[in-house]
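Re: FE2/S2 (inorganic) cluster structure - here you go.
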Amino acid sequence: MGGIIHWQGRKIAFRAGETVASALLRAGIPQFGQSGTGLERGVFCGIGQCQNCLVMLAGRPVEACLLQCVDGMNLEPQQWVTQ
Ligand code: FES
């Protein structure tokens, strides 16, 4: 059974068993955040190794390529703080 996740307040439909990365990409969202140097971040390895796809879920960073969608889930880009 699919459902809806929320990306920056935008409703994104997902299919049963789909990861957050897959649902965002299918919705035309390839950029999940921005690095401290200003580079786009998104799916790179797709297997949980590079952490280029980190998104924020309930205040914690999680790999979008490993995270299975749950109906009603609220996600935001990870904000990098440079000092
Ligand atoms: S794309 Fe590399 S950890 Fe998700």
